[in-house]
Write a structure and sequence with these properties.
Chain A: Pathway: Amino-acid biosynthesis; L-histidine biosynthesis; L-histidine from 5-phospho-alpha-D-ribose 1-diphosphate: step 5/9. The structure holds two protein chains of two kinds. Chain A contains six helices and 13 strands. In chain A, a hairpin with a 4-residue loop joins strand 5 and strand 6. Chain B is α/β, with parallel strands linked by helices. Helices cover about 35% and strands about 30% of the residues of chain B. Chain B has an eight-stranded parallel beta barrel, surrounded by six helices. In chain B, helix 1 packs parallel to helix 3 and helix 7 packs parallel to helix 8. The longest helix of chain B has 11 residues. Classes of the chains: A alpha/beta, B alpha/beta. Chains A and B meet through helix 1, strand 8, strand 9 and helix 6 of A and helix 4 and helix 8 of B.
Chain lengths: ~200, ~250
């Protein structure tokens, strides 16, 4: 099996590689169109800022390439947000695979809830094959200031200030807002399920 | 619900874990990777590795050690010590660190916080402040607590957040190593006035101290070292206690 991690100007690729390594999977980090198209699985990670990342992808036509992928694709964190329609982060048009907006958290009372959300939060309403071995209300590690609204493609819900999409699934596209590569055993279980799709 | 975080801190000197009492009298406390993996398995929510000799000896941080840690540990970890440039941070993040903490260099050159947050995002930039209470207020100390400044901790923390610090790791030098509890007043002041998470550090001795810093000072996370290293307190027991107290905690 060939697993490719999309190489672009957003962080945390190394920790995804290490997480796959712990699962006994060797992945290639690449932005080569042929390698990406021929991979069995593609992981689209990301930590960073939406418009910079989106511009980078567009300049290299990687956005078109991602949209055309037919194998299972997993977007993580910013990767998930870029698969959505539009992000409030610097008013960025994203790829639109998921017809959902990405919005900024607003604390109801000043400083009551910190932004970004940093830490472990539970996920509920789990209903995708990725969560087959992940118990309801498992804790996952989140780091984000922007969130994806709820929609028909939502497969897991988290609550921070409001209920939002912790995970999405549509056709061959899967996405998670949290970092499975940093979410201890529950996260590892999810990655393992993705690799076995 | 977002949970409160329990963060063991591994002070690193020459590749080993050490813990000073009031920043002095360093004793050996074990292998950092072994300890880190143990804590992760026990339910630690995050780890912090601080190269405590780095600033003073102008030593660059331990990117090789970071990579070995990252390979073995499936929870987030922060690395600090002697970080003074965008390049330093780039090396550590590429080595596998999730976040970096900056202290003295950011105080000397506050623009560093702007540069780091623009380059890597605020979420991976932790500002560490060593603080001591004297003459009626809390002041910032530098170089591992050896150099006093006349800047108030609240002023520096506020400016740092405006410049892009994503979290504040606040260590009270008065409390550190005493096991008499965290500094609730300054932790609470920062937590209420700033819109970023506050990690309380220094003074943990009992489980009640953790409950106090979460309940009374609204800390988002609590960090401790020696009580975990010397097995005076086990993380599962601590988490169970906090859970019984009704504090949101991850199991």
């Amino acid at each position: 099996m060939k697993t490719a991690i999309l190489k672009y100007n957003a962080g945390n690729i190394r920790s995804v590689l290490f997480a796959l390594d712990r699962l006994g999977v060797e992945a290639t980090v690449t932005d080569d169109p042929e390698e990406l198209r021929s991979a069995d699985k593609v992981i689209f990670p990301g930590v960073g800022e939406a418009s910079t990342a989106m511009n980078y992808l567009k300049e290299r036509r990687l956005d078109e390439l991602i949209k055309d992928l037919k194998q299972p694709v997993l977007g993580i964190c910013l990767g998930m947000q870029l698969l959505c329609k539009h992000s409030e982060e610097n008013d960025t048009e994203c790829m639109g695979i998921f017809d959902l907006p990405v919005k900024k958290f607003q604390s109801p009372v000043k400083n009551l809830l910190k932004i970004p959300q940093i830490g472990w939060n539970n996920i509920a309403g789990l209903h995708s094959t990725l969560f087959e071995h992940v118990p309801e209300n498992s804790y996952m590690y989140f780091v984000h200031s922007y969130y994806v609204a709820l929609g028909p493609d939502t497969t897991a819900i988290a609550n921070y200030i409001i209920n939002y999409s912790a995970a999405l699934h549509k056709d061959n596209f899967y996405a998670v807002q949290f970092h499975p590569e940093k979410s201890a055993d529950a996260g590892q279980q999810l990655l393992d399920s993705f690799l076995k799709l | 619900m977002l949970t409160k975080r329990i963060i063991p801190c591994l002070d690193i000197k020459d590749g080993r874990t050490v813990k000073g009492v009031n920043f002095e009298n360093i004793r050996d406390a074990g292998d950092p990777i072994e300890l880190g993996a143990l804590y992760a398995a026990q339910g630690a929510d995050e780890l912090v590795f601080l190269d405590i000799t780095a600033t003073n000896e102008r030593r660059k941080t331990l990117s090789e050690l970071v990579t070995r840690i990252a390979r073995h540990i499936n929870i987030p970890f922060t690395v600090g010590g002697g970080i003074s440039s965008v390049e330093d941070v780039s090396v550590l993040l590429n080595a596998g660190a999730d976040k970096v903490s900056v202290n003295t260099a950011a105080f000397r050159n506050p623009q560093l916080l702007n540069d780091l947050s623009r380059e890597f995002g605020s979420q991976c930039i932790v500002l560490a402040i060593d603080t001591r209470f004297e003459d009626g207020d809390w002041f910032v100390y530098l170089n591992g607590g050896r150099v006093k400044t006349d800047i108030r901790t609240t002023d520096w923390a506020t400016e740092a957040v405006e410049r892009g610090a994503g979290e504040i790791l606040l260590t009270s030098m008065n409390n550190d190593g005493t096991k008499q509890g965290f500094a609730l007043d300054i932790t609470g002041r920062l937590s209420q006035s700033l819109n970023v998470p506050i990690i309380a550090s220094g003074g943990a001795g009992t489980m009640e101290h953790f409950a106090d810093v979460f309940e009374k000072a609204q800390a988002d996370a609590a960090l401790a070292a020696s009580i975990f290293h010397y097995k005076e307190m086990e993380i599962p027991d601590l988490k169970n206690y906090l859970y019984q107290r009704g504090i949101q905690i991850r199991f």
